[in-house]
Design goal:
By secondary structure, the protein is mostly beta strands. Helix content is about 0%, strand content about 45%. The N and C termini lie far apart (about 115 Å). Keywords: Repeat, Signal.
């Protein structure tokens, strides 16, 4: 039910009174029902009042302090006669209960392109509470917030005016509409640019396009200039539309700068933009030609064709291998691929005293600047005579003056021979024609031979002495004397020509010890024996035990007569069993062989019978077969296990069995450099092959080797590592050796001299591991100390400097290093706590620090303590932790990080989810890894087929290679133009694939391979 307020009815009453109604009466109020449930209170005037009492409070108005009874004293009541109104807050003559609220219009100013500008709406009312309502939205912007606290955002790039309207309400009444007028000031707009990353080939010509900077916003006016800043900014220019090109006069050289890190700003009439980064990588191409030094040498006139003059000194090969040398004179001289100059003709000092030539060297970048080659021809004395050795014989007791013979003159020289000279003028003489004659008599029993020399002299001098050997022949003067004989026992034999014994001479002089023949005078039953002119008795027929003994009467004869006879007793015994020893065959894991079983087993038969062999028991992994004295072994199962077979040897009567073992020599370790390969076998033998400039191979020559070449005879090599044309190796004695290229001291011998054979470095005997970088070397000893030496441009040695080191230099004081690996210009290592460290060049993120800056000392990477295996590539790394997880970081131009992108990774990043990796190798632009299942995976650059998948397309995630082969180790090598790979199977077979320009694959060819190819041993 609703009721009308009593105060309202009082107001009606007052109105009535004021109109002269109900004067001097105070009503009593009675509620009366009305329509719609409304109760109306009706005043009943049943009492007269003599004084006015407006509020009927029985206090007359003249003394009442609150005449209208509204609870507000008369002095404070703006409407003292109206109990429903007492306040007029705004003083407008209308009470608060009936006054409408007000909404206040206003004007605000904001800037162009600003967001959420605050506007506080205002209004007023006699009431204590009002609400706000937005009536119309702005046309050139948007509102936000909750009234009265709202925000305004002008439309982008808009400057001008805008407005919106609103009203307020006090709970009963709305205000009039108010307007908020907004002025948007025009604000100066400068351009906005984005960071730029791009690349350009070194030596790019002026105008070559690098890329386009993204202009996010050009501002309020056209861009008038875009300006680069930073080191090397003068190599580039930028158009007003953001196109970066190579500037006229630019010098882009990868070997000097591999990346330009610049900033750029854009300018319009309003000013400059905020600077953003511009990173431009310079990609390497073959552009540096070789540098040669002037060459001078001398040769004697008349030297033989093909005589070596000398080798041109190569100051620098440039940035690719030298393919040829060219001489300006190819008539008189020739030069080979190693720069060795040889003669092509003979020379005469009297005709030409010096040849002045030039020489150039050519590599992929082109031909070098020609340098001088000055070859002097030296005069020599006129040629002396040349004689041949002379030999002759004369009989003892010949007459004095007997002619012995004439010395042969090979060449008289360039003038007539004037004399011959013998070294012995007592027994012989020689005349001007070279005829030798005796000067005395000779006795064979005194001297059997005279050994002299002879020379010939002409106007040039005396020639070389040649041998003159004159034998004295014996003339028999007494009959022979035979030595005492001894009984000879032999077994029954079916052999004809079986050796029995020898009859010897035993005289007191030479004549008695010289016989022209021996004879069996008697006792030779059935003619079973004969005797040779040198006294050897052999069987003529087969022997049996039916005749158990022979007594042969034997004489010796010479020109004087017959000797006194001697008797030789020969006893025939039953057959004896042959003897032979077990023996071993050593061969490579996938090799077959043929050996002489008779010699290898020291087989013999005491009876002199012929021995034959046959295979009794075959091998497990191969097949034995016998042909005559040859034993063949053909391996049928590839393995490095020892095999065993049994041979049965017989003389036709008795037999013996021997064991033949086969030991397989498998490949043990393989390491790849840029152009050549080093490997060891299970017996500790060392092999190298590939390009051999500067003695890279280590065999004492500069001849390229296209198949594995054994280095020395040592069998105690334990650990090897290959760098840029040089090799480090440790033997079982802990000794360190090095050889090859040494321009920056990377061999560690204190010099910069190249070495073409292994040389020992220092005297230490506790080296345990080595890691060869491109031109710097690292090694760890058994005390856990780290040493480094060689090129140090970027601090890759790790001693805190950038100075090259020419001998092993201790790095820090730590004694817990366990593994180290060298990249092109950086190094990584692990200590025994499983912590990973890196140092050197960091421009490609290869240090893993999260940035691209260099470090000159070992720098801890992350906080992990479970690193176990590492490999440093050209500018990227790969590592495995103790959980078998694979991580990569650094350069990724060819997908060599395996994360499916070509983006640089600045910190070690987990690749895949596998946890069974146990072997890795990082190359120039490709990576390989083996897991515990002996599966091989490859990814990255593949321009030379170095991934082994049969293609030349780059791969960006680990991809399995040759799934039919089980693998145990792998190595990646080469450079961007000549990348290649080698791996050893679980049974020790060596496989190779990739580039083969220098024979570095070792298969005897120069043909690239795109799948794993086994090589011979």
């Amino acid at each position: 039910m609703k009721t009308i307020k009593k105060t309202v009815l009082r107001y009606l009453l007052l109105v009535s009174v004021s109109m002269g109604l109900y004067a001097n009466t105070c009503p009593k109020w009675f509620p009366m029902p009305a329509m719609d449930g409304l109760v109306v209170v009706i005043p009943i005037y049943d009492e007269a009042i003599t004084e006015p009492d407006l509020d009927c409070d029985e206090v007359i108005d003249s003394v009442d302090t609150d005449i209208d009874g509204d609870g507000v004293a008369n002095g404070s009541d703006s409407f003292p006669l109206n109990p429903s109104e007492w306040a007029d807050s705004d003083g407008d003559g209308v009470g608060d209960n009936t006054d409408k609220p007000s909404a206040h219009s206003q004007s605000v100013t904001v800037d162009e392109d600003t967001n959420d500008n605050t506007i506080i709406l205002s209004g007023s009312d006699d009431s204590s509470s009002i609400t706000f309502s937005i009536l119309t939205q702005p046309f050139n912007g948007t509102l936000g917030g909750i009234a009265p606290n709202i925000t305004y955002t002008p439309n982008a790039d808009y400057a001008g005016t805008d407005s919106f309207t609103f009203k307020v309400n006090d709970g009963d009444l709305d205000s009039a509409v108010a307007t908020v007028n907004i002025t948007i000031n025009d604000v100066i707009d400068v351009p906005i640019l984005e960071n730029f990353v791009g690349s350009i080939e070194e030596n790019a010509t002026a105008g070559s396009f690098v890329g386009q900077i993204n202009i996010v916003d050009s501002g309020t006016s056209d861009i008038t200039a875009i300006t680069l800043s930073g080191i090397g900014n003068t190599n580039f220019e930028v158009s007003t539309d953001g196109n970066i090109t190579v500037k006229v006069g630019a010098t882009l050289d990868y070997e000097m700068t591999i990346e330009y890190n610049l900033t750029v700003v854009a300018t319009n009439t309003d000013g400059e933009s905020t600077a953003v980064k511009v990173d431009i990588a310079v990609t390497d191409i073959a552009d540096v030609t070789p540098i040669l030094s002037d060459f001078s040498a001398s040769i004697a006139e008349n030297v033989a064709v093909g005589t070596e003059v000398g080798t041109v000194t190569v100051t620098s090969v440039g940035d690719s291998a030298i393919t040829a040398f060219t001489l300006s004179d190819s008539t008189h001289f020739e030069i080979n691929a190693s720069g060795m100059i040889k003669t092509k003709t003979t020379f005469d000092y009297e005709t030409t005293t010096e040849y002045n030539l030039t020489v150039t060297a050519t590599n992929s970048a082109g031909e070098s600047t020609a340098v001088k080659v000055d070859i002097a021809v030296t005069d020599i004395a006129d040629v002396t005579p040349i004689l041949s050795d002379f030999s002759a014989s004369i009989a003892e007791n010949v007459a004095v003056g007997t002619e012995v013979g004439t010395v042969t003159v090979t060449s008289v020289g360039d003038s007539a021979i004037t004399a011959f000279t013998l070294s012995d003028s007592t027994h012989f003489e020689i005349n001007a024609s070279g005829t030798i004659k005796t000067k005395t008599t000779f006795d064979y029993e005194t001297t059997t031979e005279y050994n002299l020399t002879v020379t010939a002299t002409n106007s040039a001098g005396e020639g070389a002495a040649m041998a003159v050997d004159i034998a004295i022949n014996n003339i028999a003067e007494s009959v022979p004397v035979l030595a005492e004989t001894y009984n000879r026992t032999i077994g029954v034999s079916s052999v004809i020509g079986l050796y029995v014994t020898t009859i010897y001479l035993d005289g007191s002089n030479i004549d008695e010890n010289t016989a022209s023949s021996f004879s069996i005078v008697s006792g030779n039953t059935n003619g079973d024996f004969n005797i040779s002119s040198d006294g050897i008795i052999r069987t003529v027929h087969t022997l049996s035990h039916s005749t158990s003994s022979y007594t042969l009467e034997i004489i010796a004869s010479n020109s004087v007569g017959d000797s006194t006879p001697v008797n030789q007793t020969i006893t025939i015994e039953p057959n004896s069993i042959p003897t032979a020893s077990d023996f071993n065959i050593t061969l490579d894991v996938n090799e077959s062989t043929i050996v002489d079983w008779y010699t290898r087993s020291s087989a013999m038969d005491a009876d002199g019978n012929t021995l034959t062999a046959s295979v009794k028991t075959q091998g497990t992994y191969g097949i034995f077969s016998v042909t005559g004295n040859s034993l063949s072994y053909v391996k049928t199962i590839g393995t490095n296990e020892t095999d065993m077979g049994v041979l049965e040897i017989t003389d036709g009567i008795g037999t013996i069995e021997i064991n033949v073992s086969v030991t397989s020599l498998s490949w043990q370790q393989i390491e790849l450099g840029q152009w050549n390969t080093v490997a060891t076998k299970s017996n500790g033998a060392l092999y190298v092959w590939g390009w051999n400039a500067a003695g890279f191979v280590g065999d004492g020559t500069t001849i390229d080797r296209h198949t594995p070449t054994r280095i020395g005879t040592a069998t105690n090599w334990r650990s090897v590592s290959k760098g840029h044309g040089y090799t480090l190796a440790i033997n079982n004695a802990g000794e360190l050796y090095a050889w090859g290229y040494n321009s920056y001291g990377q061999l560690g011998d204190g010099t910069t001299t190249n070495r073409d054979m292994p040389i020992r470095i220092g005297s230490a005997t506790n080296w345990t591991s080595v890691g060869a970088g491109s031109k710097h070397a690292l090694a760890i000893n058994s005390d856990g100390e780290l040493y480094a030496w060689g090129g140090n441009w970027f601090g890759q040695v790790g001693d805190g400097t950038t100075t090259h080191k020419y001998s092993p230099t201790r790095i820090g004081t730590a004694t817990n290093w366990v593994s180290v690996s060298g990249g092109y210009y950086h190094s990584i290592a692990i200590n025994s706590d499983g912590e990973l460290y890196a140092w050197g060049y960091g421009g490609n993120g290869q240090l893993g620090t999260g940035g691209s800056y260099d470090r000159h000392t070992p720098w801890r990477i992350g906080t992990a303590t479970n690193w176990s295996i590492i490999s440093a590539g050209y500018a990227h790394n790969v590592a495995i932790n103790s959980d078998g997880e694979l991580y990569t970081w650094g350069s990724n131009d060819y997908g060599q990080l395996g994360d499916g992108t070509t983006e640089i990774l600045l910190t070690p990043t987990h690749i895949g989810t596998e946890t069974n990796w146990n072997s890795v190798s990082a190359g120039m632009d490709h990576t390989l890894a083996i897991n515990s299942n002996e599966e091989l995976y490859a990814w990255g650059g593949n321009e030379n087929g170095q991934l082994g998948d049969g293609n030349t397309t780059n791969i960006f995630t680990p991809t399995r290679i040759s799934p039919t082969i089980n693998w145990k180790s792998v190595s990646a090598g080469g450079n961007y133009q000549q990348a290649y790979t080698a791996a050893i199977s679980s049974i020790g077979v060596l496989y190779v694939w990739g580039n083969n320009d220098y024979g570095q694959l070792g298969d005897g060819t120069l043909i690239n391979k795109t799948i794993p190819t086994p090589i011979g041993n």
